[in-house]
Amino acid sequence: MHATRLQPAQAQHPIQSRSVKQSPTRMAAGEKGRLPKLIAFDLDGTLWDPEMYELRGGTPFRRHKSKPAVAVSSAGEEVHLMGPSEAILRELATAPDWKGVQIAYVSRTEYPEYAFPCMQTITVAPGLSMADVGHHAEIYPGRKTTHFKAIAARSGIPFRDMLFFDNERRNCTECAPLGITCIYTPSGMTQEMWDKGLATFAAQQDAAVTSRQ
Length: 213
Fold this sequence. Notes:
alpha/beta
């Protein structure tokens, strides 16, 4: 299946700036101008659970009656965001500190026909779905180096300015040589892994600057 580029959230849903509680790690990176230009997330087992191949039912998905960040499959199975994933995506999409930073979804799932409508169903901020806040979606089987090369070609963002979270070590191992900061998240997104990702990215940026001096 061909990848579908998601339109920037602000182009579709202008949103008001809001006060968002900031983590010390993010502030330390942001104050020194060392935030990534693009943050990429794997889907299955990183942002959400269960994985698409585990579902007995698929489309049509519907939004949970009382949990906007939960999609319900045609078989009644609940797909929920893991750990702080909802809060992270909401902050990236709405907090002024993250203005200009692009969000990408990078997945090797063999069920993109489930993943896309699931993203359109899960709400991460008032009036904004996962699909709305994403700028890029490379969701199809294959090596993720292919996914990232497509994103780099489309966005013009160098690999060195990208941060990537994935729960499969092999994906991190394959993509790191491109220059991407890759964070292995065996238990999915957690606050610890989020903070580690930002700190690791900032440290690598510092190291790159030092090596050029």
